[in-house]
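Recap slide: Iron-sulfur cluster repair di-iron protein, sequence and predicted structure.
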Amino acid sequence: MNTFTKDHTPAHIVKMFPKASDLFKEHQIDFCCNGDRPLKEAFAQNNLDGDAILKELNTNYQGWQANDSTVDWGTFSISELVDHIVHTHHAYLLEELPALGEFVTKVFRRHGADQPHLIELHRLYNHFKVEMEEHTLKEENELFPLLKEYELNPNEKLLQQIYETIHKLEKEHDVVGEDLKEMRAITDGYQPPVNACGTYQITYARLAELEDDTFQHVHLENNILFKRI
């Protein structure tokens, strides 16, 4: 599917593109209990500019579909790789971590008493969130400026400083990798329970998307960017 239309249902769209739930929440479009009716009905009922919403939805969806694995990163300079990581993966985390955190908390509060694994999921997610927020700041404030400087003015002293910084950051990658591994294990591969509510399903879908993006993010750094140095 290349684009969504007004005849698609919110439930179907969110299944295909979990982050659409943010846009629907913004415009008070029900994608859960009444999510099986066409978008055009929600547009009419809420007196919304359907064309503008569809345009934003499809623009976001096309960007989401873009896959780093199709790009030959070996042809990119260090600065180009750094800028891509910041503007793609760091920007994604800046937007997604707090938004997804609300979903994780909502599911935990609603279902945690009956499903104890959600208590651990809530703890793991928030640990991952804090680690990644601090980690990306370190990269942007400490490592990435050094890499760009080294590209312009390579020298042994600067290289040693870069090595030491990379070593610390790779250890942090290992920590968040363990968080992701544990979250996948306790959620049975992000498979929601039978008859799970829409919020529950969206939370798991977005956690799976977060995992995918983080794997690509860390791959670009550990196996491509850092190897350049």
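The first helix runs from residue 10 to 16.
The two ends are 40 Å apart (CA to CA).
(End of recap.)
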